[in-house]
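Sharing a chain and its predicted structure for anyone who wants a worked example. Both blocks are below, sequence first, tokens second.
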Amino acid sequence: MSRPVTTADAPAAIGAYSQAVRSGNTVYLSGQIALDPETMELVAPDFETEARQVFRNLAAVIAAAGGTPADAVKLTVFLTDMGNFPAVNAVMAEFFDEPYPARAAIGVAALPRGAQVEVDGILVLEG
């Protein structure tokens, strides 16, 4: 049986989806972009600020699911500019410790709300 995971500490869904869905010990995190959860506006000064907001949003949903970043087993990073790949690596290292989750990075033409980066993931929780 699966159940949605929601938190006011991350942006509300902007479509027909849940912030995350837990099924057994597995949590599927929907993609997060750099929306400020209070204003629902995209944070914008630079790529690193945007990436940090994405990972803060993911961390909030992870916590709401009862996990920590250490429970992440897989992330997918979507970038509108693959030139930002080194920056997203640096920001990701601020939120995750070794051993890092498995990850894919995919270049895309566009993301919702003009975002430059989106990240989704999968957690496996104990118990």
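Comments welcome. The chain has a mean pLDDT of 97.
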